[in-house]
Amino acid sequence: MGKLFRIIALFLCCMAALGAWIVSSPIGSAPDDDYHLASIFCASSASPALCRPAQGGYLVPPGVAPACYRFKPSRSAICQKRQLKIDHLVYVRRIRTNAAGGYPGGYYWAMGFLTSKNIWKSVYLMRILTAAIAVAAAIAVLGLAPMNLRKAGIIGLLLGGGPSGWFYVSSTNPSGWAFIGVGLFWIAFGTYLTAETAMRRHCGLALAIGLACLACAARGDAGAFICISMLVMILVYARPRRHFLRLMALGIPVMAITAIALSSFFLSGESTHVASGAGGHAASLDATSNFFYNITQTFGLAFGAAGNSPLGWDTYLPDSIQYISLIVIVMLCSWALLSASRTMRVIWAALLLFTLVIPALTLAQLGLWADQFGQARYMLPLLPIAFGAIFLRETRGESISIPRIYLWIFGIGVSLVNAIALYVNIERYSRGVGKPGPVDLSAGSVWWPTTLISPMSTWIVGTLALGIVVVVSVTKMDKPLSKSVG
Predict the structure, then answer these.
(1) Nearest CA to 257 among 222, 212, 217?
(2) Are 387 and 159 in contact (CB under 8 A)?
(3) The pTM is what?
(4) Per-residue pLDDT of the chain (486 residues; tens, 9 = 90+)
(5) How far is it, in rounded angstroms, from Cα 193 to Cα 377?
(6) Which of 180-208 are b and which e, b meaning 16 or more Cβ less than 10 Å from the residue's Cβ?
């Protein structure tokens, strides 16, 4: 009963932290949300009354159309209330939906079941569902993982997740599912490779397959990320042991899923959808030159996902987030790198190279420049393993011992980044930005989606909730959430 109570308390705490992010943004706040929302409401699982064919496009509810506040950071989201009051369907172009199969359809099909005439209710239910999937999956995967994997997973998720990861998990953008699936897959797959008991091994495999399906249902490039994650874990734990061949044979379903996902990416139109955002302004360089140019730019995209890129369309974060994130990342990763074996250093270097190469190569094939048409969210799913893998150790059961002062700096840094980013995001939509306002977010607020809790109270709850999760993670990092493996 005590363990169940702790699990429920942890789940509620995580949901409170993500719940603050869920209500902090209006409908359509994530990048390309007009595309994704239209695709959801026009999915086969949605009501036909909510999406009607029209000449060259579709008629959809008004809240699905491009948001009235985007690219106008000084304007609050109050204009959307008038937009939602329109009592007739509005036109969207076919190219701004998934009609041509630009993305895998699994995410849109699943969310289509939550659509209704009440757009506000539908969208927030979708966000809550994604957040609940993220929290439940994280608790299950980390609870099953051995100490070494659990510690690396917690660090990777918290370093790679904020603030962009928390924002997308709390949105209606498929990148949220991709982040959940890829960000947790490597931990589940590593558990499957290292577990001694059949029960843990089978549970690890089941979770890995489920997470791979979740990620690949949302974004085609998640298949490539799953393959990279699987390869890294095999290289880390591929040591001669009695049951290794049998364990790898059981991994065939996971490999088959990733093969299908890769085929889906190259045969579907996801890359075409990315190119459509260029508006015909392709790069003038040849593919090879463009690739090498993009390599020099993708590092900025990776760091952008950790706090250097705007949230949503135009929510620019203060420089303090970049500095805090950089200090924590450099401090922890440099310490782990110095204490790692030569093998782990080589594996981690190769992983970082792949993290930069994949988006650079994809954009080069499309004739696009990474600094103009690349988005930080494209690299977000790989950040947890990129930051967490260096804390892995090849010997099964071995756990890296991080100095407590480093852990507390890490915890304080993650909590501060969340607090600052959440504050800025709430301010952006509740009253607009551009000039300094009162510290109290409720003062001068003209938009807020609920009367149950005020903007300032939401920020306090979200900040404290994540702070509690971080404190528990830091203090319990050396203590297993469940019985030790093997």
Answers:
(1) 212
(2) yes
(3) 0.89
(4) 578 888 899 999 999 999 999 999 999 898 888 889 999 998 888 888 888 888 888 888 887 877 788 888 888 888 888 787 777 788 888 778 888 777 888 899 999 999 988 888 999 999 999 999 999 999 999 999 988 888 899 999 998 887 889 999 999 999 999 999 999 999 999 998 888 788 888 899 899 989 998 998 898 888 888 888 888 888 888 654 545 555 555 556 666 666 665 665 565 555 544 544 444 444 555 667 777 777 777 766 666 666 667 888 888 888 888 889 889 988 988 888 888 888 888 888 888 887 777 777 767 766 666 656 567 777 888 889 988 888 887 766 566 788 888 888 999 999 999 999 999 999 999 988 877 778 888 888 889 988 889 999 999 999 999 999 999 888 876 554 444 333
(5) 29
(6) bbbbbbbbbbbbbbbbeeeebbebbbebb
Tokens of 235: 């290289």
